[in-house]
Write a structure and sequence with these properties.
alpha/beta, eight-stranded parallel β-sheet, two-stranded antiparallel ribbon, 12 helices, 12 strands, about 40% helix
Length: about 290
């Protein structure tokens, strides 16, 4: 079966679309070594077959969107292109229509020091745009269905990303990482979400890599400033310790009120860190089978 042929934006107008889950946790569960600054990109370099296996696990769980292993890759065009090619190969052999989303991680991800959970890198918008432009150009050349501008901690970086996209005709979603009702850099969410409201390149806006309890208030804030479809793919509720590079799991996992998220406008739903295929399969059961003809 070919990759999904209907534009993702059209599918979102028809109903919810299921994203995949965390790539890093799935690769770790497969026994892969994610040490070093490239993180999942290291596996893409050394064992692309393992990345394909992780994508396959999510496709089998019912995911309709596969997010590439390009999150923490800098400006290596060959490796960025490979990330799309590997996901594309899995999408074309899935038993249902699947879109490929090319991950554009924030500047802080490339630093590999947890800066994506703080923002405020000390760089202006021009410098951030200059950093992101070659990465985005390389990913677009590989022809993904959409760009995933994800885990963005700072509205200044969001502005820089949108500046790079302006006039390209590309399609993207914009997803902030948040905490306590603000971006990780401390900016009000309404102001952050409003940046995407008039950007024709943005087909959906929302949050990822956050606590599930922060999702609903964030979606409500987004819905107050934009009529675009919303998205949510939080973590499992664990907290990342960048110093020790370990996760601290909650005593009791927070529930996922997916029905409330959908009622608030979420159309792209999935999981981020420590959310595996089983959880995605559970969401698939909740959402029902994907519609035919995608």
């Amino acid at each position: 079966m070919p990759r999904a042929t209907r534009p993702l934006a059209e599918a979102l107008a028809r109903g919810p679309v299921l994203l995949d889950g965390g790539l890093s946790n799935q690769l770790a569960d497969q026994g892969c070594d994610l040490s070093g600054p490239l993180w999942t990109g290291r596996v893409l370099t050394e064992r692309p077959d393992q990345v394909a296996a992780a994508h396959t696990a999510y496709a089998r769980a019912g995911a309709e969107v596969l997010i590439t292993a390009s999150y923490q890759i800098g400006d290596d065009p060959g490796l960025l292109e490979r990330s799309v090619r590997v996901a594309d190969g899995v999408a074309r052999t899935a038993g249902h229509g699947v879109w490929v989303a090319a991950s554009v991680g924030p500047y802080g991800a490339v630093l590999a020091d947890g800066s994506e959970y703080r923002g405020r890198y000390g760089l202006g918008r021009d410098a951030l745009a200059a950093f992101h432009r070659p990465r985005i150009e390389a990913l677009l050349a590989a022809e993904p269905d959409v760009l995933a501008l994800e885990t963005v901690p700072d509205s200044d970086e969001a502005e820089a990303l949108l500046r790079v996209l302006a006039g390209t005709g590309a399609r993207a979603w914009l997803s902030y990482t948040i905490a306590g009702g603000r971006t990780r850099a401390g900016q009000p969410l309404r102001e952050a979400f409003a940046l995407a409201a008039e950007a024709p390149e943005v087909i959906a806006v929302g949050v990822n890599c956050c606590d599930p309890q922060d999702v609903l208030p964030a979606l409500e804030a987004a819905a107050s400033v934009t009529a675009k479809p919303l998205l949510a793919y939080p973590n499992d509720g664990s907290v990342w310790d960048a110093g020790t590079r370990t996760w601290h799991a909650p005593a009791s996992p927070a529930p996922w009120p997916a029905a409330a998220w959908r009622a608030a406008g979420a159309r792209l739903l999935g999981g981020c860190c420590r959310v595996g295929p089983d959880r995605i399969a559970g969401l698939r059961a909740t959402l029902g089978p994907p519609p035919p003809g995608v």
